[in-house]
Amino acid sequence: xxxxxxxxxxxxxxxxxxxxxxxxxxxxxxxxxxxxxxxxxxxxxxxxxxxxxxxxxxxxxxxxxxxxxxxxxxxxxxxxxxxxxxxxxxxxxxxxxxxxxxxxxxxxxxxxxxxxxxxxxxxxxxxxxxxxxxxxxxxxxxxxxxxxxxxxxxxxxxxxxxxxxxxxxxxxxxxxxxxxxxxxxxxxxxxxxxxxxxxxxxxxxxxxxxxxxxxxxxxxxxxxxxxxxx
Length: 230
What we know:
Elements: H1 6-14, H2 23-32, E1 41-48, E2 60-64, E3 75-78, H3 81-90, E4 94-96, H4 98-105, E5 113-116, H5 121-124, H6 128-131, H7 149-158, E6 160-164, E7 170-177, H8 182-198, E8 209-216, E9 222-224, H9 226-229
Parallel strand pairs: 3-4, 3-5
Antiparallel strand pairs: 1-7, 1-8, 2-6, 8-9
Helix pairs in contact: 2-8, 3-7
């Protein structure tokens, strides 16, 4: 059995496992118990009362976190030459078409977001085998297939994230860094949760927000009171 470090023991002792904390309390506590030496990510794990196997209960959306994620996202834009300057001016890290498609087909995936335009989807579509499993495939629903390339790049750089319920009915996503002040973490988390609540499928019966936990990379998780959220 792995030995529990002194810091970890202290962190665990501060979390009441029987309590459902308010979002404000939980964000303060997660900062307190974050023991890693690096600036760890703060994540939400949300369990929804949906059946993702049913198409009409798939929960997927986009949200711009008011304070960003604290992580600079690497953006690849696959576009025609007339759009390249617009992409570069907006802050894209990689811009082009055929040379990047060839690199991706050989397994290159050193990017966080891929943005393209409708006219390029004929070429980009064949990258599904590589990009699909990594959740990197451009999709009109997440605003990553668009003719307004500059706007899309700026939104991603400003903290726009997309989220999707997994096969186990969970949504896992980052809402900031442990170095953020508690209020910023709370506002980011609330923005994400509100977006998910608005997307409740009409066919989903019973409790929609089953459980919500917040944690940092190395910390114990803290349960949030779902009554306050919904």
